[in-house]
């Protein structure tokens, strides 16, 4: 089938458990996958996948407007999955056992439940996560780009790739986005790295990574303003007011 299928991932239907579920508990509802056709990166050690047990959906006797509004506001203001993800990244970088450590496995099992909590209504207990943050998150690796936190130079593979990427730029003219035959895919879509002379001609003495960091800081600073200027309660009221305003405008426009 390989020569006839393009831009498609085929999972087997046989076996005790779907492969997609073995990959971080994926359920094919918009999940993204990365496919690597090269031969330089080869997985030698196969580690059994974690068991991702889905939480049962929460039921309510009656769906009321107040319940819907609270659900929307809680969803918009929910940072649970982000906190779990960043904590997992720090522990994986610092712990000698990496992602195979006990703490990382705990967070890896908790993360898909936090993602699905919007659909299931499950309230994630963050007490253990808070303890792990206090234990591990006193500083962050440079590749996480936490400019407002204490950082350290990471010796992990992520740190190595991040440091290398800071000095590289991609020449888009050498990247072919057109569909090609499978046997020529690697050859025709190879990304060529520019030389130092090319970079100086395009960017002068500025590093591209420095520009990227400045752009990344903007939404992060905007996100922090809401916590500095307004309390949590006032922020929720503001969100509700904005949401109500949008609903009223839509009703007026589409009458």
UniProtKB/TrEMBL annotation:
This protein's UniProt keywords:
Membrane, Nucleotidyltransferase, RNA-binding, RNA-directed RNA polymerase, Transferase, Transmembrane, Transmembrane helix
Enzymatic reactions: RNA(n) + a ribonucleoside 5'-triphosphate = RNA(n+1) + diphosphate
Q: Which GO terms describe its molecular function?
A: RNA binding; RNA-directed RNA polymerase activity
* Domain RDRP core as annotated: residue spans: 5-164
Gene Ontology cellular component annotations, sorted alphabetically: nuclear RNA-directed RNA polymerase complex
Transmembrane helix in keyword set: yes
Q: What is its EC number?
A: 2.7.7.48
Catalytic EC class: transferase
Which residue ranges does UniProt annotate as crossing the membrane? 235-254
For this entry, list what GO says about its biological process: siRNA processing
Family matches, as InterPro entries: RDRP (IPR007855), RDRP_core (IPR057596)
The record ties this protein, via PANTHER family, to: RNA-DEPENDENT RNA POLYMERASE, RNA-DIRECTED RNA POLYMERASE
**Similarity comment text for this entry:** Belongs to the RdRP family.
Tell me the protein's name: RNA-dependent RNA polymerase
